[in-house]
């Protein structure tokens, strides 16, 4: 960095954000410049320009200062001894000041934009060369003038326009090339001077003089923009082209379906298209309104609401629906057109008669409503088909699911492993009012604690080693407005139980590595095969979390307690496999009866796996009880062995043993329900077989 640049280095005036008000005023009084830098724990994080904030700095308080603070990341940082990067060049151009760091990477002050650019132009650096190449590629001539009125740099286009060379330009005073009077006028007034024709024996150019000001509004240099006079001629031709284009635009406006109006920032109508909607204005010809104020017409009560007034008040695009006295529905869209100062210059209004469109939209809305109802009913039917049952116990479970349909309560599904808890959770989702929203499921016991935390709550960029550089959205955010199923919730570690409790209480989630909470609206369905109440007593599960998730408990009975569902489930599973493999396997009645007597410790999952094994290994389409027994060992479950005293056909022996067992059970327990429990078959099977035995006894005794 050039020694002269160090002379322009301005020390930093720093203020801690927790500084008392008296110290704030003292710091402001002792400052060296209009820029104030804010610190937290001695680290600069933001800055403000006091000159643009308030004229009376004695009235400033720390809260006002913090409110108007600009993050330090917006400023360029130039480290002494390091080459200038291309990004730094553009930062310097975009901001009034540039921060300077020493070799220890500590801030030592700042310099103004002009001084920074001057220093950069002096350096021999690849990126500065790129900047110079970009400067030279601009078709207009550009000359950068410093405070000593020497030319600091220029582009190739400018050199060609003044018919000179780079060496001559850099050695000359700016007044030797351009109009000295104009230069002095701009320097003294600080105002831009445009479109000045400068003609000499060597050149004919059009010149713009723009002052470069520092923070104290003092002129420290000039930008001189040059256009060759032949280029000005081209601009004149361009104006003719624009005139032709304007004629074409008028023709286009005349053919448009919409009514187009152009008003000024006071509401006065300036221009209009040929199409207009007379019902709005109460006139026969739109020409009658030219030059009149549409805001005054609104006050007269002829139409409301006024799109012009709303655009001027809100300073943005506004759409309103108006209704005429004759019943027409009009959509009016107002678009603001801003000038260079950011103020509204014009308002363009496009109005369209949407009476017929509104009627069609109402019909479409009703059609969509009916379609949604049909879809909802269809989803309900699909949901019913997914859960295969006929037992009274499962009927009660399904009734509870239907009752939950209109509520978003937290549900706790209890049941042994393999009973179909996730299927129950999906049914609650499909039956409920969130059926068209996401359903996500996660097994809390299948992954490690750290991974579970990041999966549930998500994490920010760089939250931990190995994290995705883009961060990750957690399950809670992904399931927002929908349902999140937490399977095996009893396996959640204590630390994560606390975070989960906070989500349920506050309805917001904080990603790993972040301090910002994100609101979420998620219905929680949890499931477990553990005794949570016992875990609470043992201190292994938080009591407050247990009560949070145990709002609506649903107990799914094990398969051994609803044996009447076994034949239906078995038939469903084998039919699914038949469709998958284009086969025609089925069970014999005796094989189904044998499946009913097994206690199924693995529940529905075990039954499904068994049936797939039978289908894969069988050689016959009809799966017999012998094959079931041989393949699974189910036939070895019976503890008592009947005593055989004579030889008889096997099927007769089976029938005889079955009859004796049923009669013994009915004689001892009286009801088919209790007999079914003891015999470990369905109540319907006991009832059917018992009635058949009684009928045979009556027939053999000669009764009718």
Automatic annotation (TrEMBL):
It holds the Pfam family AAA_lid_14. Residues 314-366 form the PAC domain. CDD domains: AAA (cd00009), PAS (cd00130). Keywords: ATP-binding, Nucleotide-binding, Transcription, Transcription regulation. It comes from the Bacteria. Gene3D superfamilies: 1.10.8.60, Homeodomain-like, P-loop containing nucleotide triphosphate hydrolases, PAS domain. Residues 387-616 form the Sigma-54 factor interaction domain. Coiled coil: none annotated. This is Sigma 54-interacting transcriptional regulator. It comes from Alkalihalophilus lindianensis. The lineage of its organism: Bacteria, Bacillati, Bacillota, Bacilli, Bacillales.
């Amino acid at each position: 960095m050039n020694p002269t640049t160090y002379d322009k280095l301005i020390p930093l005036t720093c203020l801690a954000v927790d500084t008392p008000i008296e110290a704030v005023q003292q710091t402001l009084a002792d400052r060296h410049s209009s820029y104030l830098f804010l610190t937290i724990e001695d680290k600069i994080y933001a800055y403000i320009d006091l000159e643009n904030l308030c004229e009376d700095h004695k009235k400033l308080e720390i809260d006002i200062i913090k409110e108007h603070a600009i993050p330090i990341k917006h400023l360029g940082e130039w480290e002494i001894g390091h080459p200038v990067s291309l990004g730094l060049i553009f930062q310097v151009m975009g901001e009034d000041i540039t921060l300077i760091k020493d070799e220890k990477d500590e801030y030592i002050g700042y310099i103004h934009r002009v001084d920074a650019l001057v220093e950069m132009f002096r350096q021999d650096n690849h990126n500065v060369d790129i900047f110079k190449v970009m400067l030279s590629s601009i078709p207009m001539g550009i000359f950068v003038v410093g405070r000593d009125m020497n030319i600091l740099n220029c582009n190739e286009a400018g050199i060609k326009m003044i018919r000179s060379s780079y060496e001559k330009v850099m050695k000359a005073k700016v007044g030797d090339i351009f109009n000295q009077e104009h230069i002095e006028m701009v320097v003294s007034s600080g105002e831009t001077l445009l479109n000045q024709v400068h003609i000499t024996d060597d050149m004919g150019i059009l010149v713009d003089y723009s002052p470069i000001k520092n923070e104290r509004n003092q002129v420290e240099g000039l930008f001189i923009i040059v256009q060759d006079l032949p280029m000005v001629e081209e601009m004149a031709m361009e104006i003719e082209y624009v005139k032709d284009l304007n004629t074409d635009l008028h023709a286009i406006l005349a053919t448009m379906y919409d009514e187009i109006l152009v008003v000024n920032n006071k509401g006065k109508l300036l221009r209009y298209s040929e199409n207009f909607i007379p019902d709005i204005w109460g006139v026969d010809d739109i020409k009658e309104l030219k030059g009149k104020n549409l805001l005054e017409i609104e006050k007269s009560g002829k139409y409301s609401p006024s799109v012009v007034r709303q655009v001027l008040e809100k300073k943005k695009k506004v759409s309103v629906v108006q209704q005429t006295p004759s019943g027409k529905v009009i959509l009016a869209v107002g678009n603001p057109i801003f000038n260079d100062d950011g103020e509204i210059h014009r308002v363009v209004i496009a109005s369209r008669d949407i009476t017929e469109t509104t009627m069609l939209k109402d019909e479409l809305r009703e059609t969509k409503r009916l379609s949604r109802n049909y879809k909802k009913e269809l989803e309900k039917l699909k949901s019913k088909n997914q859960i295969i049952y006929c037992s009274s116990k499962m009927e009660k479970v399904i009734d509870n699911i239907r009752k939950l349909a209109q509520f978003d309560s937290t549900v706790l599904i209890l049941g042994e492993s393999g009973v179909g808890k996730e299927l129950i959770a999906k049914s609650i989702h499909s039956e409920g009012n969130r059926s068209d929203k996401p359903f996500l499921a996660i097994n809390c016991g299948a992954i490690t604690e750290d991974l579970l935390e990041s999966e549930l709550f998500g994490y920010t960029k760089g939250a931990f080693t190995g994290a995705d550089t883009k961060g990750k959205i957690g399950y809670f955010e992904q399931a927002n407005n929908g349902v999140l199923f937490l399977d095996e919730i009893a396996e959640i570690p204590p630390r994560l139980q606390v975070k989960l409790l906070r989500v349920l209480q506050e309805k917001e989630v904080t990603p790993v590595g972040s301090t910002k909470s994100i609101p979420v609206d998620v219905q929680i369905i949890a499931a477990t095969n553990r005794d949570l109440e016992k875990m609470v007593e043992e201190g292994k599960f938080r009591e407050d979390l247990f009560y949070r998730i145990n709002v609506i408990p649903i107990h799914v009975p094990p398969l051994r307690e609803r044996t009447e569902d076994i034949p239906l489930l078995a038939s469903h599973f084998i039919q699914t496999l038949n469709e998958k493999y284009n086969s025609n396997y089925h069970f014999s009645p005796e094989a189904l009866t044998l499946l009913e007597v097994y206690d199924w410790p693995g529940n529905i999952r075990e039954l499904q796996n068994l049936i797939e094994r039978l289908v894969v290994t069988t050689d016959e389409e009809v799966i017999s009880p012998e094959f079931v027994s041989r393949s699974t060992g189910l036939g070895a479950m019976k503890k008592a062995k009947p005593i055989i005293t004579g030889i008889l056909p096997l099927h007769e022996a089976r029938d005889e043993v079955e009859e004796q067992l049923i009669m013994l059970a009915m004689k001892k327990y009286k009801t088919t329900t209790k007999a079914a429990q003891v015999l470990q078959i369905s109540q319907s099977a006991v009832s059917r077989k018992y009635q058949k035995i009684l009928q045979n006894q009556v027939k053999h005794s000669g009764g009718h």
